[in-house]
Amino acid sequence: MWKMILRRVLILFPQLFIISVITFILATVMPGDALSGLVDPSVSREILELERERLGLNDPLPVRYVQWMRGIILEFDFGQSFTHRRPVTDIIGDRVFNTFLLSTAILVLTYIIAIPLGVLAGRYKGRIIDKIIMLYIFTALAMPTLVLCILMILFFAFNLGWFPSSGSVNAIVLAGGDAWEIFVSRLHHLVLPAFTGAILGTVGIVFMLRANIIDRTYSEYVTLARSKGVPTGVIFRRHILRNSLIPVAAGFGFAIAGLLMGQFFIESMFMYPGMGMLFVQSVNARDFAVVNAIIIIFSVLTALGMLLSDIFLMIVDPRIRVE
Hints:
Blueprint (H helix, E strand, L loop, with lengths): L1 H28 L15 H11 L5 H15 L4 E2 L4 E2 H36 L4 H15 L2 H15 L11 H6 L2 H39 L2 H8 L4 H19 L1 H6 L6 H6 L5 H10 L3 H29 L7
Antiparallel strand pairs: 1-2
Helix pairs in contact: 1-14, 4-5, 4-8, 4-14, 5-8, 6-8, 8-10, 9-10, 10-14, 13-14
């Protein structure tokens, strides 16, 4: 197991190097640059070129890449945001907590909803409860994310007025409230986007868990257990359900890696100030320093998620051996 982990960690370095090169090149070849949107149109070309020279925008591409990577590796410095005029690490640091809070809520709600639904649908295949759950799954699967977000905002925020439609905390409470009032306000703003993300996230888990349970119900070892007179409840708990949860547990590593990756579309639709919304805003503003930093961070988290998935799979299924 430890050899596998070490081997996977060593493989991460060339993968991340290739990702960083591709990200840097794609951001560089995009039309315009961050400086183009900040200068006054009346500024002369000579002054503009001097500013580009000062910022290193005229340096050769390999030189700029090496300087960028050196700052990240040695100083954890992703550069300066031209839009916000602040270090990129400070800007991301302001958004990390909101994204972590939203992603954690979506993760918890997803598994709380998906596992019971998947178990019920698989165990009672073909019955009315299975048909209701599958109707929910196919509806959520066919529902575009944009449409679902709009429906949730219209119904729960505008029509019923139960939850706010945007933001992460009430500005008045943040300015004059105590810690408890701020906490309650954050939870109040969190409910609607979290449930929207959970509805979308349950589809794959429920479908996979249901299929695994049905498949293992008719397996040979379950048939053998029934022939020996083992009670149905014991067979389901110890043989069917336990083995069916293995793929779900294996995917949990990716879910953990997604805690800081955010929900790009949901954060944008609910105007939730997280890293996903920051990424969209930075792309529109051509703030390449922020865009590159977020992509690199997400790439590292995804690679770590793949490693965690392999580790979880080996823990929950001792039969697996990686040579």
